[in-house]
Automatic annotation (TrEMBL):
Residues the record marks as active site: 34, 41
GO aspect biological process, one term: tRNA queuosine(34) biosynthetic process
Organism: Nitrosomonas ureae
Residues bound to substrate: 56-58, 75-76
Identification of the protein by name: NADPH-dependent 7-cyano-7-deazaguanine reductase
GO MF annotations in UniProt: preQ1 synthase activity
Length: 139
C-alpha cells in the first residue's frame, strides 16, 4: 500500500532523557506552492533539536513534510507553521528550523526560526549550527 501525505506527526520516547544531545536532519525535497502565482517553491529544510521526553518519528515527519506539496503558503508562514507543529508534539528543550528556498525571481530566501524551553540551559557543549552539509555518498 502506498503512503499518503498527512499532517499527523508521531513521536517515540527519548531513549536518553537524562542527556542533552543534538539531532540534526536535512530535508532537501520540501515543496509548497506560491500563494500568489501557484508555481511550486522548493526548499531544503534543516532541523536541529535537543529532545526532552520525545523524539520525532522519521516516516511521519516525511509524510508531514510531503503534505505541504499542494498548499499555497508564503515561505515565512510555512516555516513558522512547521516549527509550531513540531514544538506542539515534541515539547523539545531546544529546536531550530532553517528553510532555504531556492531562487525565485533572482532572490534566495532563508527563514530561520527557533524555540527554547523556558528555563532550559544546555548542560554540555552542543555545537548547534556547526554541522556542514549532509553527504549522501562516500568519497
Amino acid at each position: 500500500m502506498a503512503s499518503k501525505p498527512e499532517k499527523n506527526l508521531e513521536t517515540f520516547p527519548n531513549p536518553f532523557i537524562n542527556r542533552d544531545y543534538h539531532i540534526h536532519m536535512e530535508i532537501p525535497e520540501f515543496t509548497c506552492l506560491c500563494p500568489k502565482t501557484g508555481q511550486p517553491d522548493f526548499a531544503t529544510l534543516i532541523l536541529d533539536y535537543v529532545p526532552d521526553k520525545k523524539c520525532i518519528e522519521l516516516k511521519s515527519l516525511k509524510l508531514y513534510i510531503w503534505s505541504y506539496r499542494n498548499d499555497g503558503v508564503f515561505h515565512e508562514a510555512v516555516t513558522n507553521l512547521i516549527l509550531d507543529d513540531l514544538i506542539a508534539v515534541l515539547k523539545p528543550r531546544y529546536i531550530r528550523l532553517i528553510a532555504r528556498f531556492y531562487v525565485r525571481g533572482g532572490i534566495f530566501t532563508n527563514i530561520i526560526v527557533d524555540h527554547r524551553k523556558k528555563g532550559w540551559m544546555s548542560k554540555s557543549m552542543i555545537p548547534i549550527g556547526e554541522l556542514s552539509g549532509q553527504l549522501n555518498f562516500r568519497e
